[in-house]
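Handoff note, outgoing to incoming analyst
You'll be picking up this chain. Sequence as last confirmed:
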Amino acid sequence: MRALIVDHSKVFRAIWQRLVVPAGHEPMMVDNAAAGLAVLSRQPADVICVSLSLPDSDGIEFTRQARRLDNGQSVPIILLTSSTDNRLHRRAFDAGVTDIHPSTHIEELFERIRHYGSEQDDLLSGRVLYVEDSPTVSRIMIHVMNKMNLEVDHFRSAAQAERAFDPDVHDLVISDILVEGDFSGVTLVSRLRESHPDKTELPILAMSSVEDEARRVELFRLGVNDFISKPVIMEEARARIGNLIVNKQLFDQVRQQRQQLYDMAMTDPLTGLYNRNSLAEFTRKLESSARRRDMPLSVILIDIDHFKSINDQQGHLVGDYVLRELGELLSKSCRDEDLAVRFGGEELLLVLPWCPFENASQRAEELRERIERLMPAGIAVTGSFGVSALSTDRPVDLEAAINAADRAVYRAKALGRNRVVSMSLEQALAELDDEDEVFTIEDDDDARHTG
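Most recent structure output, in case you need it:
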């Protein structure tokens, strides 16, 4: 960054030199207005800091004359003064001053001007969909964006641009509102915003030579993020494009971080499967879909046989490896609509929408065979499977189906493990009734003996 410093104070210039040189910037130091204007007429600067008080003029007059030079028309100019006089500030801004800062806070000033320097463009990256039918304007704009490290897909017609638009590729859309082709840039804006209503996900910058306030208001209503009038002031274009790209990418980062936090909260870190939190969140949606769409829904509960022995004999690292391998196996066997959950320590659960009871039993048997052949860490591993499903003549209750599958798992273990037991809700409820009856009789016998 080339910073032109116009200040008569030797102390200020010395401190400034000490700050900017180690940071890799190029300071151009002068002590009066005439020298500053002479430097600016010979070479451009990225930012100018000028003191209000100068030996041959003042900072406001310097700014007024600097704005008449080719190299001074768009460069940021910061006036250094501790004055709080509003009339002076108004005169300064009318003359073309960009910002006002006290010269006593030099380190803060240095941090601030770094944001004005054009080298900030070097930090940009992204891809722009650009619609412009003027060869002259498009050549200049593409050159500007390429200097900002942006890739540009340029189209002369809005119809071509719409077909080429990819929300996963393009960070910004720039369109003239009056372009050749089947439809205008206005229509393009309307269609893109219809399909992508979030302005942070898809920023749109409109351009026009039509000085019509009503048209501009209408464009903002249609969903543009910003607007540039033609003929384009290139520094303004750079600033507006840079702001939109940076803001979009910052929002993308926030969304990505939120998704990562959500995934961490909803996913078991060991197996990569969903966890119990996920099951609780999805249960209501699954039950609602089953009720509304008359959807068959089955569950498979898997309990790894003798898992405690694996941990005790082989160590917990081997036990973790076994769980990871089984989690990967379940993930690969799932359809897109299935939900694979680590239900407990060594219990894994599959929730299967649009899967009738009989099909679920068949899938459970296929999984049982695959687990038996898996041999994770060279260890023979088997599982006891319980299968159940929602009942057509009972209220939709996923928890009841899981409880029925849990009873089926106990039955599978009692029968020798490494097998599939399917149990309907009616069978599970009948077993519960039988157990309650047994407990009642035993209680009555105890009462008689004690009485």
